[in-house]
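Our working data are protein records whose layout never changes between entries. An example says more than a description, so a record of this kind follows.
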Amino acid sequence: WDYDLLILVYLGTINWYTNPYGSPDLDQFDFVTVMMHETLHALFFTGMIKVESGPKWGGWDGPKASFDLYLSSYSGCAIYGYATNMNDTKNGDIGKSVTNTNLFFSSRGNKRIVELYAPAAFTSASSVYHYDQDQFTDLFGGDEDSLMKPALNSGFKNHDFGDYATEIMQLILAKSSDPPEPCEPGTYDANQPTENNQIAGMEPWAFYLVIGISAFVGVVLF
């Protein structure tokens, strides 16, 4: 058989919820949600990056997938540029980039689409090709963009691709769209957040959120 897309479903002991119109119980996995998640992986959220433990080496043994071209640093450049040549498959800066919690899917012009999952411990089944876990604390699918979080828990339902995935699909499908400019080899440190990017040790958005909440609480108490 010649498949364009093949998803193997384990029926075993998994308690599947197969009604496309209702909502799963807390001990059930929503079949439509899981199929949408895995279909996005098969068609778009996929790549060939490899990371070795120890001194974290990273790189590509073969051609890069389209998604890989948009993997960017905090500053917005594409991390594949850290490789010094096409055969540089064990690059320390690439390895650090996908395990430093500051990995993004960006387009040209430093336009961040979404932060990606890049924990310190690289996991081949979860790292890079999912959204950052910390963005989605909702367990039941209330956030339309939560479909591509790293782990789909039982009771979770989301039948919406969301704005992030829609924009990612449009970028990959549009042959005229430009991925970000590649990072220059040896510039890893310059592309990371510094104290100049932070206020009181926090990202600017977090600082102003805290200030806003504090001001609101102060007004209420007053």
